[in-house]
Design a protein that fits this description.
Radius of gyration: 19 Å
Order of helices and strands: EEEHEHEEEHEHEHEHEHHHEHH
Helix content: 25-40%
Structural class: alpha/beta
Strand order of the largest sheet: 3-4-5-8-9-10-11-12
């Protein structure tokens, strides 16, 4: 698999990584299988999808434990990325960016991941009660202590308001400008997909101009861009899509033209819809690494195959002509 650099270039990982969150959090709990998920992580490493993206809050904690089972056996093949700064409470999330907490959380993540160093330590969310420079400074101390190799920041979500706009990532850009003065940013993680392209307006160009890696989260649109979901199929109550404005039966039906367009391109390449969606993400720049979530070997294998697909200018123009995604607010 093609490898892409992380940050200044001393580190690298496969162009398609593995988002491990669905194995433990956010999606249907009844479909989680620890052994099956561990096999999926092994398969990712077999294929060169070396970036394993997790977080202490996924579970909470259980996702890092799961990933750690594999990392313990194959540390040299894995690029371990985890996150700090967000706590999962009862029906709500709470940010904690206090330096003391960051240091304790890192030590706990190292234990769960069964490694002595985290390749990429990401600030999940900035704490509004703590200057982000203080949080980032504590994270920088972890690099100096040899516990972390590079630092990353996760952008605020794309669905905070009624409709996405060109100014969506301005708060994140302000945070990045501030923390960059404390310690270099190695990577920025934000949503980027055919149906959520907002990062292309300002966030991705900001990263590209500074040789900062962009980790494309949710590149398959929470599964919608795989073409395998049926409008009206319903989701379990603990599945985030049960409350997502684009996953009502009406909106899933209304957004089918997006999938249909990707399917036409896939037919020309002998590929799947998901592979075309990922190939589009990878085509947005050499500093982009796609991080699709998956918990089964077959999906990991399919996703990794996207690196062998090279979209033509005509393909990219066709994607650009597809209608924008609709949500229930539309």
């Amino acid at each position: 698999m093609e490898r892409r650099t992380i940050g200044a270039g001393a580190l690298s990982a496969g162009a398609v990584g593995l988002g491990c969150m669905p194995m433990s959090w956010g999606y249907s709990g009844s479909r989680r299988r620890g052994d099956e998920s561990a096999r999926a992580v092994h398969r990712a490493l077999d294929l060169g999808s070396s970036l394993l993206d997790t977080a202490d809050m996924y579970g909470p904690f259980t996702n890092e434990l799961l990933v750690g089972r594999v990392v313990r056996e194959r540390r040299d093949e894995a690029f371990v990325a985890t996150k700090v700064g967000l706590l999962a409470g009862d029906q709500h999330l709470v940010a904690n960016g206090r330096p003391g907490y960051v240091r304790r959380a890192c030590d706990a993540s190292l234990r769960r991941l069964q490694t002595d160093v985290i390749d990429l330590y990401q600030l999940h969310r900035a704490d509004p009660e703590v200057p982000v420079e203080e949080t980032w400074g504590a994270m920088a101390e972890l690099v100096q202590a040899g516990k972390v190799r590079a630092l990353g920041l996760c952008a605020l979500g794309a669905r905070g308001g009624r409709r996405s706009s060109a100014h969506l990532h301005e708060p994140t850009l302000r945070q990045l400008t501030r923390v960059q003065q404390v310690f270099p940013v190695g990577a920025v993680q934000a949503e980027l997909s055919v149906w959520s392209p907002e990062a292309l307006a300002s966030l991705l160009p900001w990263c590209a101009s500074r040789n900062i890696t962009f980790l494309a989260a949710m590149p398959l649109g929470n599964g919608y861009l795989t073409g395998t979901l049926t409008p009206g199929q319903g989701f379990e109550p603990d599945d985030m899509r049960a409350h997502h404005p684009r996953f009502t039966a009406e909106m899933m039906a209304a957004n089918q033209p997006i999938v249909a367009g990707l399917r036409r391109i896939a037919a020309r390449h002998g590929a799947t819809v998901a592979q075309i969606a990922l190939a589009w993400v990878l085509a947005q720049g050499k500093q982009v690494i796609a991080v699709p979530g998956a918990k089964q070997e077959r999906w990991v294998t399919e996703n990794a195959g996207a690196t062998g697909i090279h979209l033509t200018p005509e393909d990219l123009a066709e994607v650009a002509s597809l209608p924008g995604a609709l949500g229930s607010w539309d």
